[in-house]
Write the structure tokens for this entry.
Amino acid sequence: MSFKDKLLSGKRLLTVEAAPLKGVSFAPVLEQVVPFKERVDAINVTDLQSSVMRLSALAAAVQMRAAGVETILQVTCRDRNRLALQSDLLAAASFDIENILALTGDHPILGDHPQSKPVFDLDAVQLVAAARGLEQGVDMAGRRLTGAAPRFCVGAVVNPGADPFEPELIKMEKKLAAGAEFFQTQALFDEKAGERFFKAVAPLKARVLAGIVVLRSEKMARHMNDHVPGVHIPESMIRELAQAPDKKAASVELACDLIKKFAPMGQGVHLMPIGWYRVVSEILDGMGA
């Protein structure tokens, strides 16, 4: 059963995120994610995550697909105009990559090439609409595609901790209207904040996967609190991690607890190990996946 089939069936889902490296080879990442590919519903491939130059997400997704991994290709609007974005969507479809996550993208000033000129020709809402247009056999200029039209399962992102939240809710409604079929959220840590978010979006009847970041350390938690918009990690959680004698075991236990809290609120979770792939299987064991 494909990711889209599972999504539409209402099945509770688990997706995991993987990031290409700054280099030619994707093999080191692939070797770490293939062992748990049968235990998750799909694996995201990030697109120049945090505006850091890396191997192309599309190249990595093609290798992932060849290894039998159900793949979600992230596509950001930051670096490409509408010509290149539509071309990459067609390229993905030509490799049988149908799952797309549309993002506007972080500004280049936040990454390792701050002198880069951002593009932002489209935003995420327009990118979702562009993918839906391609499915109808036409590009954004209204010109017909040659041959069969692509088929996509298009997702988008939402930030539950955005302050104020109303603009984020309006944007989410626009993404749904443009054709988004599912959402993956920014990292959630605070249970009450998660409950408020899912209550607020319930009338939209959207399929939402709660974002869970695997915290490695107290330092990482404090950095996220200080620098990641919309993320709030409770001080009690940070203290618990700081005082744990076995940091890895504490990180795994915390991730399992967060998954158990947030998975029932939506249609599942999106796990972000931030490169710490070796603990994913332990987390899956801990949550009984």
Remarks:
- The chain has one domain: 3-283.
- The chain is about 40% helix and 15% strand.
